[in-house]
Specification:
Mean pLDDT: 85
Helix content: under 10%
Number of helices: 2
Number of strands: 22
Oligomer: single chain
Low-confidence stretches: 5-55
Shape: globular
Number of domains: 2
Length: about 300
């Protein structure tokens, strides 16, 4: 997701300060809104990100019986990534990589060769659209918008919009498991949708050790599970979509170091590689895509 106003020290915020933060918010912040007029929430604007460009704390795990495995990532190889791209969605289909990006006036959807650097096709979104997640089905590329409440049905080759579908709330991440779409909205909830109509077919709440896992962001459907990065952390979680239980938490903090100076340059972008157990990981404004093995 999104953009931050900036790290703030812990303090008691007055109503006046909340208003000031909202007025000063970067128009690209796509954390859930505190009010219809605000572009950031108190929660997102007060996240302690540590040093510039680094992510905040990891996923909080409860003490319930369903304890996730703890793992890390092992880098297999690196690929170049355009550091101007504010990555939101990432998917590999064959030897092609699809990517959607965010920020108002700069959002786009592109596809390029997996081994190449430049896009073959790149289509900008409307100036008032903040691009979000992306999922490729058999004959469609679906892309989300953050606050517009609109999903685009795109041609997989030209990426031009064929139709639009409205949905309530915010759009964050999206993936396709072969039968249905799985969508995140920045909460601890995943929503299942029909891959043709985009109609909602169900939901599940995500927990780790019994504790809710909010800020679910970019998604990748892989081998019957859902991989998700948790916004403003360096954690990738593996989710059982039937129960919502997080079965593993992978620490990816070794990637993208040193991070770009932009505080929004956080981990974001997960793509499973066909015929492989490896996945691609990258971040917003990063110059590298990492092929990694997820190690439990």
């Amino acid at each position: 997701m999104r953009s931050l106003v900036g790290p703030l020290a812990p303090l008691v915020l007055t109503v006046g300060l909340v208003g000031a933060l909202s007025a000063c918010a970067d128009s690209g912040d796509d954390a859930p809104s505190a009010s219809p007029a605000a572009e950031t929430t108190l929660a997102s604007s007060s996240v302690d990100t540590g040093s510039a460009g680094s992510a905040g704390g990891g996923v909080a795990v409860g003490d319930g019986p369903e304890q996730p495995a703890r793992g890390t990532v092992e880098v297999v190889r690196t690929l170049p990534h355009d550091p101007r791209l504010f990555t939101q969605g990432l998917q590999v289909v064959g030897d092609r990589i699809y990517e959607s990006t965010g920020r108002l006036g700069r959002s786009e959807v592109q596809h390029r060769p997996l081994e190449g650097e430049g896009p073959v096709v790149s289509v900008p979104m409307a100036p008032d659209e903040f691009g979000e997640g992306l999922a490729v089905t058999d004959d469609t590329v679906w892309t989300l918008t953050w606050k517009n409440g609109v999903a685009h049905n795109r041609d997989p080759e030209t990426l031009e919009v064929r139709s639009e579908v409205r949905y309530p709330g915010e759009g964050w991440g999206l993936c396709h498991d072969g039968e249905r779409l799985v969508m995140s909205d920045g909460s601890d909830r995943l929503t299942f949708r029909d891959p043709v109509t985009f109609e909602e077919t169900g939901t599940v709440s995500v927990t780790a050790g019994g504790a809710p896992v909010p800020r679910l962001n970019e998604l990748e459907c892989a081998d019957g599970t859902v991989l998700a990065n948790v916004w403003m952390t360096d954690d990738v979680v593996r989710i059982d979509p039937a129960s919502g239980h997080v079965t593993a938490v992978y620490d990816a903090s070794v990637l993208g170091q040193p991070r770009p100076s932009d505080q929004d340059a956080v981990l974001n972008g997960i793509a499973a590689l066909p015929d492989s157990e490896n996945v691609l990981l990258t971040g917003k404004l990063w110059d590298t895509v990492y092929e990694v093995r997820l190690v439990d």
